[in-house]
Amino acid sequence: MVREEEVCDLFVIGGGINGCGVARDAAGRGLTVTLAEMSDLASATSSASTKLFHGGLRYLEYFEFRLVRESLIERETLLRAMPHISWPMRFVLPYHKDMRFEGDTPTSKLLNGVMPWMRGRRPAWLIRLGLFLYDHLGGRKILPGTSTVDLMSSPEGRALQERFTKAYEYSDCWVEDSRLVVLNARDAEARGARIMTRTRVVSAKQEDGIWSITTEDADTKKTRVTRARMIVNAGGPWVGDVIRDTVHSHSKDSVRLVRGSHIVTRRLFDHDKCYFFQGTDGRIMFAIPYETDFTLIGTTDQEHEDPTQPPVCTEAEKDYMVSFVNQYLADPISVDDIVWTYSGVRPLYDDGASSATAATRDYTLKMDHSAGAPVINIFGGKITTYRRLAEGVMELVGEEVPDLAPAWTAGVALPGGDFAVSEVESRISDLARANPFLSDAWARRLIRAYGTEAQEVLGAVKQRSDLGQDFGATLTAAEVDWLMDREYARSADDVLWRRTKLGLRLSKEQSTALQDYMTRRSVRAASAAAE
């Protein structure tokens, strides 16, 4: 049966960070919004990032000053709105005389022209200049600025080879990327948006300037027709497919798919700072403390031709990343040290760049009327600039919707983020004191995931057994129930790899027990709803 409803203002295709960010912004301005995601929220690119709010230091070499400035400003704007899932991090950039540019960067070409004897090397003064710009382009207020580190005597030097004696240290921020998406979706729904996960857009047809969008629920196979005045194509890697095959647009704009892969290893160093490594091939690589006991290393840039092919970290990419960081580490690692890998596809705007690395990371927004009714296509973008991207989309919406309410999202807390950046440790202590059965690590994980909602997740409990079934690694039925009821989780993978990263800690048997529990609970809920 097909259900047909009233006309909504905006229909968003795609439940990644761009789609959920747009839905939140639009709903907060009083528009009626429907969002459809064919899988789980953040199931593709938005859960496969390097998980940083950062300005993009290397983008300065491409003279992308607008992108870097906007990103730097956004770091602290976002940090204030979500101090539970984002936090400051210091980045250590070891210096040595063999540092080189990628050969086709504008900075490299300029420097090679005026200083040919450098042969592509990055001189120390250039790095200091870049870091000076990085400190001052974005109006930094919370994060500390750049400093110099003596690697001969500091803890940061112990993990590195003895030939590295000096480093520069600067600031950026960590973010739990997939949680960021879910919290945007929750806030959008709280402001009136309809969020439909595991719902595929089957077709979109325009009639008299209004879109009729047919969707199908992946579980029930029921279809629904939603009428909308405008479509926002936030399809990520599938943005081109939506343009061609769903809305049947005549747009000439195209997407360039670039795969970025990461590896996770055992913990490689005993401090909480990140390394920014530069290779002799001109590329860069991060090594980041991850989930307490691990190190996250990435990323790569490889062309990815077909969005229907799931991105995977290839053996060549594993070897490349291991070899890259071994140029720095005092104790080399091997592929046997890898405990997990993940890959995502960046849907970049095809600007004709000569390589995947050189393709712009800036976002491009295109209003298209060629199919009859308006469609806004979103290309590219960084997780750091998702909020500003959403504001850009709303500026285009404003061309079609008179008297649109003004921008409002800057600094407005996401669910659980309504506390000061400086209060994190006190929040952890308060939660542990109110629930004596919590270990410090458990309380910290809950505050970092749920912030001021952590106690609500636990409920009115007096002892650990009140939390229900224990799945391992501090994951209990109480938390799973919250994730299913409030955060759209339907499968064990949703819980273990997107709402949390506890998949790194649970055994296969524990994961199976979790899936069995969630399946039973879903069946009971469906039966109750049918009665």
From TrEMBL:
Keywords recorded for this protein, A-Z: FAD, Flavoprotein, Oxidoreductase
GO MF terms, alphabetically ordered: glycerol-3-phosphate dehydrogenase (quinone) activity
Alpha-glycerophosphate oxidase C-terminal domain boundaries: 409-515
Protein family (similarity comment): Belongs to the FAD-dependent glycerol-3-phosphate dehydrogenase family.
Domain (FAD dependent oxidoreductase) ranges: 9-386
SUPFAM superfamilies: FAD-linked reductases, C-terminal domain, FAD/NAD(P)-binding domain
EC number: 1.1.5.3
Name used for this protein in its record: Glycerol-3-phosphate dehydrogenase
GO CC aspect terms: glycerol-3-phosphate dehydrogenase (FAD) complex
Stored Gene3D superfamilies: 6.10.250.1890, Alpha-glycerophosphate oxidase, cap domain, D-Amino Acid Oxidase, subunit A, domain 2, FAD/NAD(P)-binding domain
